[in-house]
Specification:
Radius of gyration: 32 Å
Structural class: mainly beta
Strand content: 35-45%
Number of domains: 4
Number of strands: 40
Helix content: under 10%
Largest sheet: 9 strands, mixed
Strand order of the largest sheet: 3-4-5-7-9-12-15-17-18
Distance between the termini: 90 Å
Number of helices: 2
Amino acid sequence: MRKSKFLSVLTATTLALTLAVPTVMPLELTTGVVKAVEVTTTAPSQKIEGRCGDNAIYSYDKATRTLTISGTGAMWNGTKYSHLGTVDKIVIGNGITVIGEDAFAQFNGVGSAEISDTVTTIKGNAFKDLKSITIPKTVRTVETDAFNGVGKVVVEGDMNNFQYGALGDEVQEVQLKGSAETLGLALAKVDDPTVTIAKDNNRVRIANRCLLSSDGKTVYYCISDDYTYISGNYTVTIPDTVVTIKSAAFYNQIISEVKLGKNVTTIEPYAFAETPVSKLTTNSKLKKIGRCAFKETNLKKVTLKSSVAMSPKAFDQKVILTSTKSLKSAKTVMTSATFKKNKINAKFAKLTGAKGYQVQIKKGGKTYKYFTTKTSIKVKAPKVFKKKYNVSFSYDIDNYTSKIEGKPAYISVRPYKIVKKNKKSYGKWSEKIVLTK
């Protein structure tokens, strides 16, 4: 009898748990008295949760296919969500400050993402294949490839620190609601994106196909590839109001000729790099040309009307520089410096009027000087290099970092001419370049 009662209870309980609606089941108690007990079943959970930061959690809603991040502080890099299903929407809640590297890279075809205005940093490869995204004003740093395959980007604030290729290589449209200091860098990997200005944006304006600051003193970007076509050349004329041309402003654009406005003093790194520019008209106020500003162009000759500080690789070695000033105030530019098999090989651009060049190598507090009439030297490394030299450094746009690991050697060059009694009269030292293995 006891065994029969036990089986009756077990069977009744099993049936109750398999039903989708509440029901009443008789349970035989050991006293033999029958009572009615209500058993309620529940559907499987519609949410999956987990941690994605020291103080951040994620919650995935199966019904809406929404992934929500909540909590405070930074997300971890590389959080995996392999057990989640399709994600149609991503929501970054208030309190999150940093969206981690590879945060959502595993999700393809996400319709949209909402980012709260507490976020200040978006790290590399954070998002993939978004149809649209709005970046709030609070975001200051967007790392390389933070967005891959994004369709439309609305930037609500100033683009102060968007790194090289921050918006990936497939973005179709960018709408600006603030200034655009690093727009060129952010779009350096993109071919022919559409850049628009929000109606209420009074931080930027357009002139001569250039996206300018509201005061006209800064060129941020080449707003269109519809340049002025003159005698077979696509010519860009920088307005006279402009003082600074920002980094990568015209990077990899179809430009044959550049005419600087009369007040341009600074051309930042990569400004015209990898363009087919074959003619450059400078001015008498130009003071600074950044690294790789005209790297891999079609320039062969450039006339400088002032004493210009040229960062490493500002021009290619094939470019012949001519200064309208005296040789004493003239400079050339270092284009490469490499260390291999205990040999140092350095190259620089030719300066018209120079009889030769003095090359200076500094390492470990010591200085070594060499003379050459060519635009390169190849010498045996001094004794200070007897230990293994492992410094690697790149000035290229996709690999540049200001951080140098190890103890580097630096190389610079200055021109000279011969005056009375074979005495040398020197020009100015170029900016130094890092010797790299």
